[in-house]
Every structure is written in structure tokens, then in C-alpha cells.
Amino acid sequence: MAEQATEARQWRATHRFARISSRKAGLVMALIRGQKVNDAQDILRFTRKKGSRLIDMVLRSAIANANEQEADVRSLYVVEARVDGGPFFNRFRPKDRGRAHPILKRTSHLVVVVGERKS
Predict the structure, then answer these.
(1) Adjacent-strand bridge partners of 113
(2) Angle CA 37–31–6, to nearest 5
(3) Mean pLDDT across the chain, nearest whole number?
(4) Is residue 54 included in any domain, yes or no?
């Protein structure tokens, strides 16, 4: 007997060139990976890090994308929560004896994918 492969529907949202280092945002992304959407929003609401506000906006966008396609929002969960490094802004800080040291202002790309869980 062959089982029918039901393709799970997934929706994604990204925030490119977010002004936060990928290392700092990755700590917050690890908290919501695999969670139900409501639980992930609660975690982000009470996490006191800059990345939590940015990631919450991306998660809300992914939920809105799913809602537009008439998905059951109560059965959504975070399939993928990923942070990719973006380009650097190079700035220079003046130092002693006329030297200059670079400061790298890091950016990242935040990706959140939500999917329906069949219960």
C-alpha cells in the first residue's frame, strides 16, 4: 500500500540587511526554532534583547503570509529560523599617532519559515 505524500505548506518571511550581528540574532533565533507560533511570540515578547524585536516583526510577517493563504493560524509552528551574515559597513576610528582602526558595523539576514502541523 502506497501512502499519499501530503506536501506540507510553508510560508517564509525575511528581513535583509538588519542592523544586528548574526551572532547576537542567532541566540534569539535558537529560542524559537521548532516552537508553536503562539509560544514563539510569547518567548520573543519577554526576551530582553534587541534581536527579539526584529525577529518578532519577521515572525509576524510570516504569520500574515500564512493567513493570506487561508492557513489555520492556530496550527502553525516555526519550521526554520535562520540568521545569515550580511555585508559590513566599514567605519574608521582615529587612533594615536595619526593611525586609524576599522570598525565593522555588521548586518544580517533574518529568515523565518512557518508551516502547518497536522494534528
Answers:
(1) 12, 80
(2) 45
(3) 92
(4) yes
Is residue 5 in some structural domain? no
The rounded distance, in Å, linking the Cα atoms of 80 and 119 is 19
Residue 73 lies in domain: 11-116
How much is the pLDDT for 7?
Answer: 62
Contact in structure between 54 and 20 (CB atoms under 8 Å)? yes
- Does residue 1 fall inside a structural domain? no
Residue at 25: amino acid letter = A
Whole-model pTM? 0.87
Cell of 43: 518567548
Amino acid at the residue 101? H
* Class of residue 85 by CB neighbours under 10 A (exposed 0-12, middle 13-18, buried 19+): middle
CATH of the domain at 80: 3.90.470.10
* Total tally of structural domains belonging to the chain: 1
